[in-house]
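Review box. Two proteins, two foldings.
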Amino acid sequence: MKKQILTFLLLLAALHSSAQERVLFVGNSLTYYNEMPQLFAGIANDKGFRVEVDSYTVGGTGLAEMLASGEVQRLIESERWDKMVLQPGTGESAGLSIPTDSTASVVRQLVAALRAVNPDAKVCLYEISNGITPGDGSGDYDYYLSTQQRILDSVTKIARLAEVPFAPAGECFREHYAAHHDLMLHSVFNDIHPNAAGSYLVACAIFETLYEVPVASCDYYGDLDEEQAEYLQQIADTVVLPNRERWLMGPGEDPEDPQDPDSLSISTIKHSNNNALNLYPNPTTGLVHIEATEEVTIYDLKGNKTQLRPQSGTLDLTSFATGVYILQVGSHRQKLIITRP
């Protein structure tokens, strides 16, 4: 009898140690297209996190409408969730359908309902990507980039007011489309919904935001081929964690870690909040979004200097060699890493 009890207790301990985390996704068709939550679960499980996902999604609906119906709040309060991903509607994401402070109030109410059941639950918003208008027939990517900036500004404000981080999925899309004028992440022009590759990239961004570890290398590819999936993983690794403070994830590791060989040549550059430039993505493949209008001085590690002026908030460094650089505007400085796919 004692042996049976011991076996039972060991079994319970094993089950507890391997307990799944439960992640709830709340959103509309931008969340349920291509079964994105299941893609997220596949990535998380491949990376060693035991994850079970569920969704509350209604096509063409925003968070405010969902809260008003009462159904999503009942779902949140009826079960214990470890993590929750909230996707504002298209109009909410751009600050068009209702004011951003109203959307932030909705988010706060949903978060409060979750933490009444599980005070330690983690929450993030999902920043969507805008669709690409046809323009002259080959895609108006300038309009796409400017509209994506509006979404970023709005979601950043919502997240700040609600005091939650957000997964910069839209910025991962922008990283690709700023350099490649194609339809890799959308199936057709004028459709805001991502295709299978786009949904996989969204899942990568959400995974990195929730678990705060790089997604590469991950052997779960969904329905994509290995090369395409690894490219999308690289985009997420380039955009999310290196810019974690921008997505309100909090400070990351000190970039001046003396174990970083690149930092030894620039040890005099400090990266405090007071003098660091606000730029992203970092690392980058060449196009850098920077909050500066004046001329930017760019130093390589040999001390060579180049001066460029941002165009519409973007620096084009695609002609620069891969490596580590220092960007400076006045007294504000920031280390930048340039990589290539």
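Next protein.
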Amino acid sequence: MNAIEPHELVERALELSRADGCVVIADEDSSANLRWAGNGLTTNGVTRGRRLTVIATVGGAEGTASGVVSREAVTLDEVESLVRAAEAAARDAGPAEDAQPLIPSRPASADFTAPPAETSAEVFAAFAPALGEAFARARKNGELLYGFARHEVTSSYLGTSTGLRLRHDQPTGTVELNAKTADLTGSAWAGAATRDFTDIDVTELHTGLTRRLGWGRKRIDLPAGRYETLLPPSAVADLLVYLSWSSGGRDAAEGRTVFSKAGGGTRIGERLSPLPLTLRSDPAEPGLEAAPFVLTHSSGDNDSVFDNGHPLTATDWIRDGELANLLTTRHSAGLTGLPLHPPVDNLVLETADQSSAPTLEEMIARTERGLLLTCLWYIREVDPATLLLTGLTRDGVYLVEDGEVVGAVNNFRFNESPVDVLGRITEVGRTERCLPREWGDWFTRAAMPPVRVADFNMSSVSQAS
């Protein structure tokens, strides 16, 4: 599979193309993983993969059609059949609603012809010994550790018939660590995202889990209701990632979402939070670096294959508490009159003065009575018009009284809209990189603060553990 380099596959596909336009994406993946259970490693491995995607565009009397075909492990001899399949799909398709001229040429990436980046088991050189030490501490404490670590590097090569030759290397690392009491009645979770595992402090993660298992020795039953609630960064990320996915400019302009303005138009310019919160994306964000150009394998509500290669820049979605921008493709921007803002693969929520922002521990210390969550899961949309979501708490909900955690309470089902939550945040902590628990398989590049929310709606008691 690796006898030919990815950029050569791109060039061969473009050379073979007979369509009016052609976009080719070669993705080379390598991944390394560790899994553990009951204080011992269970599996580990390294994998490699390759995918070639050909997007053919064909003009006609009624408009331009597109056909997209992807295949795994493509060899040089198989490229022509893939190109012909994409062209056939385009000819069989009706005109593409999102059709636009392909992005014009600009200078090629300097490393476009270089071999793909790779990961290996060596990425865990410092992490694995630290994990072994955590196993020893857990056995001594009467705890059981479960979890997994994964590191993936994807090198993507984008070439087009208009002359684009762009490349992006994307490292993605995650670790999830779950500690349980020996009788399995107590559970605590911690997760982290990383580019290279050099910044993962296993001891710190495990120490935090041990502390939370200690909090859980005292059990307190609470009824459903509205509670002042401290949301940690992971929980905030899960809510705001879904908000981001739901912030399409066209849907808002057509009156279908929470960002639609009564009487027509969008809510851009309206205040969503009384606090000066900024939700933003930036492909160059330190530690959260993402592709600096559109790189999409299919068209959707907020993505267009015709936009492949368009430069991405820093964008404020919410600025100082006001809705500033919505997601748009070139097509939807033209329909709505909104600025062009394609999605960027990271998300940051922050206040301007990070130096004075409190830590989560400091926020706990000044809580008179409230709940402290660990994370959210099984999040589902109830009402797109209000972005009402439902889901469950998991792996530890704690009662805080007079600045101290006094015990663990039962889990809840919640019903909340992220937009409503933004309006009820009364305190914002220090922004830190985090791993969304629910969306971590799809979105890992996030930095969020802990927040204090008034009257968070715990709609019913849940038996989930």
